[in-house]
Design goal:
Layout (H helix, E strand, L loop, with lengths): L5 H18 L4 H19 L1 H17 L1 H5 L5 H14 L1 H26 L2 H16 L19 H11 L5
Length: 169
């Protein structure tokens, strides 16, 4: 009997959102549990090939998201959560889930900008950041003082899970 990834991914995503909203971090214990469950799930579903699917799926988000993380546009917990999701979904569907998560995040960001009424401020901040980068000055996109630009991306990842694991995307 094959078990759908949703059985595991939705609760993991919900816990990640809960901790992200509550504490601003996704606990490593949740990530480790998710990785172990993802590995077991893939091996149970596809035997020895499942291990390769798990490793490929878990590594793809880390490789593709490295630039986003390097510039501190996304937190480490979000990257690790993407790795958990990728481990469950395998490499190809991991990419689809990343795209879906970015889409959900973009839509949610529009609502956040409208609610906070800071679209102009954020656009000016982004343009200033790009100009600094072009001048060779490296700094993280978000710093500790910039709470105005914070967004709990675990919510967008959960949205990506619902779209991908549920078969929509």
């Amino acid at each position: 009997m094959k078990i759908n990834q949703c059985f595991f991914l939705i609760p993991i995503g919900l816990f990640a959102v809960f901790f992200d909203l509550r504490k601003g971090k996704i606990p490593n214990e949740l990530i480790v549990i998710g990785l172990i469950l993802g590995c077991c799930f893939q091996i149970r579903q596809a035997k020895a090939v499942g291990l390769l699917l798990f490793l490929g799926g878990a590594c793809i988000p880390v490789v593709l998201g490295a630039g986003i993380y390097y510039f501190r546009m996304m937190g480490a917990g979000d990257m690790k959560l993407w790795a958990v999701v990728g481990g469950f979904l395998g490499p190809q569907r991991a990419v689809y889930c990343m795209i879906a998560s970015l889409f959900v995040g973009a839509v949610l960001s529009i609502f956040v900008l409208l609610k906070r009424r800071n679209l102009k401020t954020r656009l000016l901040y982004f343009c200033s950041y790009i100009q600094k980068q072009q001048n060779g000055v490296w700094e993280p996109y978000l710093n500790e003082k910039d709470q105005d630009g914070r967004f709990h991306f675990a919510i967008a990842i959960l949205g990506g899970i619902l779209l991908c694991a549920g078969g929509v995307y």
